[in-house]
Amino acid sequence: MGPAPLISQQTFMQQVSGQPIIEVRSLSKTFKDVTAVDGIEFSIGRGSVTALLGGNGAGKTTTLSILLGLLLPTSGTVQVLGEDMIRHRHRVLARMNFSSPYVDLPRRLTVMENLIVYGRLYGIPDVRARIGELAEDLDIGGLLRRPTGDLSSGQRTRVALAKALLNRPELLLLDEPTASLDPDTGDWIRTYLETHRDRWGMTILLASHNMAEVERLCDNVLMMKTGKIIDRGAPEALIARYGRQTMEEVFLDIARDRVSLENPDQPSAAQ
Amino acid sequence: MNGEPNPGQSEIALSIRRILAVFLRHVYVLRRSWPRILDMAYWPTVQMVLWGFITQFFMGHSSWVAQAAGVLISAVLLWDILFRANLGVSLTFLEEMWSRNFGQLFVSPLRPIEMVMGMTLLSFVRTLIGVLPAALLALPLFDVWVFSLGLPLAAFFANLLVFGWSIGLLVSAAVLRLGLGAENLAWVAIFAVAPISGIYYPIDTLPPWLQPVAWALPSSYVFEGMRAVLFDGDFRWDLFYKAVALNALHFAAAVGFFLYMFRVARQRGLLLQQGE
Fold it and tell me: What sign has the CA pseudo-torsion B213, B216, B217, B221?
C-alpha cells in the first residue's frame, strides 16, 4: 500500500513546537546548470530535533551550508533565530554552532589550543572553565594536550562536539554526527546529544544516513530528494503512513522511487 | 554565567578578541615548530651574507657602491621585509586552507575583515622574526648597522610591510577563488614587482616606458628613499608621502578584492571545498 498524501507545510508548522527557530521560504540554489536545492520551505521549532534525510546529492549539505551562511542561495529567504541569515548572519552566528566529521579542526594544534581559539572566536568569557566543563562531560580531559591530528575518529568526533557546544548554542547543526564511528561510540554520542538537548533546550538540525539514529533522536524529519523536500513529519507518523516498520524502509521506498512524487497515494511503476 | 558569550560586550571589543584569536591560532603553530621559525630567518640571513660578499667585492671595483658601503645589504634587508610581509599574510591564509579549517572558522562569528586584520598582525611578527636576525648579523659580519638609518628605517619598514600585505591579500584572494593549485603564487607573485621596484638600482635605470609602472608601486619610493638617506644623508619626505598615499590605495584595493572574492566563494560554495 502506498503512503497517505504528503502533509502540508502548514500542518507541519502546527506540529513544530513553539516559535520557529529556523524559517526557510522558497529556497533555491543553482550551480551553473545543476539545481542543488529547488524551492524548499520548512520551519523548525525551538527545542526540537529535526533530521534532514536524503540520499547522496539530495541537497542536504547545500541546505545546511546555506543555514550556516557558508553558501549564498540563488533565491529565497532564510531566517535563523529571528535574523535574516543572508544579510545579517554575524548577528546570530555566536548563538549557533556546527559539527561535521568532514570539516577539520587544525591538526597541528592540541585539543586545548583549538578549543581556546574557538572559545575566543565565540566570545566565551572564561574559556578555560568552559573547556573544563566540556572535557568532563565529553570525557576528553585526557586528550586536551594531544595534537588534534593524532586522535582517532571517535575522539575527534567528541572534540568536534566540544567545539560545537563551547558557546552553549541555541541552535546546533550537525552533519552526520556519528558517521564512521563504532556502534558503542555512536551510541555514546547520541545519548550525550539527548541529555544535552533535555538539559539546555537546544534545537538540533542534523543530516544523517543513520535511520536508527533518526528514529531515536528526532521529533521531525524532512525527506529530501533531487533538491526538493518530498515528505515531512514525525518518524513514527512517516513509518505509519508508508506502512513500514522502520525509517530505513521508508528511506528506501523514497530513495528507490517506490513512491510516486506526483501522486503519493499510488506506488510508482518502479515498485 | 560561566561559558556564556557576553552580549553586553561592545562589538569593537569582541572584534579585537576575534582578531587576536586568529593571531593566537598561528602563534600556537609557530611556537612549537622551531623548523618553521628557523626557516623564516634562514633566507634573509643567507641573502644578507651573499650580498655582503658582493658588496665587499664591489667596494674595490665600483665607485657607486663604495660611496655607500651598506647600500646593497640595506637593500636586501628591506626587500626581505616586503617578501616576508607578503608571505606572512599568504602563508597564514594557506595554512587555513591546508588544514581545511574554513568550514569551522566561517561558521563562527569571525568576519572576513577580522581575519584580514589577524593575518596582518601575524605577518608583522613573522617579518620581525625573519629579518631581525639577519639585520643584527650584518654588523659583526660586514660592519653594516642597518639601524643607523634611524627613524627613516621605521618609515621604510612600515611602507614595505603594508605593501607586502597588499600583495599577500591579492594572492590569498586568488587562491581562494582558484584553489590550492594556485598556491605557488604565494612565492612567485612578489617577484613580479622586484625588478621594477629599484631595489638594487635607481628607477631611472629602467627603460622609460617601464618607469611609470615602477612609480605606481610604493616600494619604488622606499628604495629611492633609502638611497637618498645612504648617499646624501637626506630623508626625502616627498618620496615618503607618495609611498604612504600609494600604499593606502593599494591596501584598500587589496582588502576590497579579498572581500569580493570571499563573497564569490560563498556564492560558489568554495568555503567547504578547500583542502588538499
Answer: positive
